[in-house]
Design a protein that fits this description.
By secondary structure, this protein is mainly alpha-helical. Helix content is 71%, strand content 0%.
Length: 228
């Protein structure tokens, strides 16, 4: 069976296929082997299937997976679908997953959507994911807002995880602030994990400080620690 015939069958099955995620993946895979109008048609159908997925987390994953293949208008539609996701954690996943394929205006739109996420952990995750694809002042601003969100996370394990996810995107002053946040974590395992994660992105005295603190914490935990 040719790819074109396969495309016709998958499209004609609309409404009969219960697993929209599998349908979106099948269409995306076909699109990669098609060109022109047929490629565009396959991607439009894949995007429609992704938007129809009931589970918001799975929908976020499907939108993220499609992003690299979509055209300008389709990316705009995917971003709108991401912003409409009710679950803040799933919305953060979708926004960060789309980030690499957004244009300047779309990045600004995604940043605005990320900044109003209520959950500190989800907001930090979304801003961290977006910061990875920004430069200059925009990157510094997004990382700074993410760090502010991290500091407000009540659960110390979640705070440590969010801090580690953000570390690679921080500037010099911000990494110093992040180190202070990590050192202030009360739970020993969470503190050691945060310090260990930060140490990989530090140099000189800051790295030595993080490793020394992590080693001291590790004496009462089973957490492995980076060497100086």
């Amino acid at each position: 069976m040719s790819d074109r015939e396969h495309l016709r069958i998958v499209i004609s099955s609309r409404g009969d296929v219960g697993d929209e995620y599998a349908r979106a993946q099948a269409l995306s895979g076909l699109a990669a082997r098609l060109t022109g109008e047929q490629r565009n048609e396959a991607l439009s159908e894949a995007l429609a299937a992704a938007k129809a997925i009931d589970s918001e987390y799975v929908r976020a994953c499907a939108l993220s997976g499609l992003a690299a293949h979509l055209t300008g208008e389709q990316i705009t539609e995917a971003l709108a679908a991401a912003k409409a996701i009710g679950s803040e954690h799933a919305r953060a996943q979708a926004l960060s997953g789309l980030a690499a394929d957004l244009t300047g205006e779309q990045i600004a739109e995604a940043l605005a959507a990320a900044k109003v996420i209520g959950s500190e952990y989800a907001r930090a995750r979304a801003l961290s994911g977006l910061a990875a694809h920004l430069t200059g002042e925009q990157r510094s601003e997004a990382a700074g807002e993410a760090l502010t969100a991290v500091k407000a996370i009540g659960d110390e394990d979640a705070r440590a995880r969010a801090l580690n996810g953000l570390a690679a995107h921080l500037t010099g002053e911000q990494i110093g602030e992040a180190l202070a946040v990590a050192k202030a974590i009360g739970d020993e395992d969470a503190r050691a994990g945060a310090l260990n994660g930060l140490a990989a992105h530090l140099i000189g005295e800051q790295r030595s400080e993080a490793v020394t603190e992590a080693l001291a914490t590790a004496k009462v935990t089973s957490m492995p620690v980076l060497k100086r």
